[in-house]
Structures are given as C-alpha cells and as structure tokens.
Predict the structure.
Amino acid sequence: MTPRPRLRYIELITGHQHDGPAWIAFANASKSGAQLYFNGKALKRVEGDRHIDTANGDVYWAAAVKKQGTNRHREGRGIISIEKSALPSYLRLVGFTELDTNHFVVIDDLPPTDASQFEAPAKPSADGEPAA
C-alpha cells in the first residue's frame, strides 16, 4: 500500500540562513517515516525535522504545516512556493480564504517521486539469485 501524501513545509537549509528556497507541497514518507520523498529527492530524517538529501548531503527542514500559517523561522524571509494542488488543503488547514501573495507564490505541481528508485537492491540469496 502506497502511503498517502502529506502536506509538508520543506526548506533548503544548506547554504542559507533561514531564507532558502521553501515549498508547501505534498510529499510521501517511507513506511518507517525515516525518509521523505519530495521533488525527486529522498530526504532522510537525521534529527527532529532536519533531513539530509541522500544523494548530495544537503540539509532540509521538513515539517508539518503550521496551522497559524507561519512556517519560516522567525528570522527567516523569502517567498514560499506552494503547489497548485496543495493550495485548497493549505487554505483549509490555516483557515484562510485566500493566499497572502506577499509571502507565497503558487507553482505548478512538482513531479512525483518514485520511492522505489531509492530502495537498496535486493541482496542475493545463498545460491546467488536475488531474494524474492
């Protein structure tokens, strides 16, 4: 069973001081919840809401969307991109009727991430054949 996508606030931390690119988008989590699949990336949880891109080591903040509508760090700044398909869910969650365009921009949906591309290959069995 594929996990249901969850609405998440995701911000690139590496190279930025609370003003990195940020998104509100749907993302899938692994069964264990240890990895988040988003925008072609596998983000592995390392501590709390801090995640590391398994491909390049970039650090991301990935958390549930805050109901009061403030997701950036209090010292953070910059426009947050929100997926078009996430907009109705976001507005409903925060109780807004429209989006504050001073803080957000609506973008086309990001491409879905195929979690299977990040799975380790099956270990061969004792007879050298891949395990079933």
The mean pLDDT is 87.
